[in-house]
Predict the structure.
Amino acid sequence: MATRTFSSRADEEQLSFADALSRREYGMSYGQYCGTVLLGLIEATGSLPRPAKATEGERKQAAASLIKGFSAQARNPEVARLSDEGIRELIASRYD
């Protein structure tokens, strides 16, 4: 199978939110989600997903629910004490 790389510029907060959702629900980055799950859905249905008509309040509620879900799934309270560099090292160690 031939592959091709694609990219896009996106609002940093929107991308962070999408990345957090895809990691929580699929265990992969948003880029990986787009390249596998989303493209598979598009191929299977023959159409692009339609944008949701969410109000700002609904988007904020969804973000708050996501954050609450992360806190409920805390595996190691020591992570909260890590520096930015420590978090980078922790994340990088998952991909070594």
About this structure: The helical segments are 12-26, 30-45, 56-72, 84-93. The CA atoms of residues 22 and 33 lie 7 Å apart. The first helix runs from residue 12 to 26.
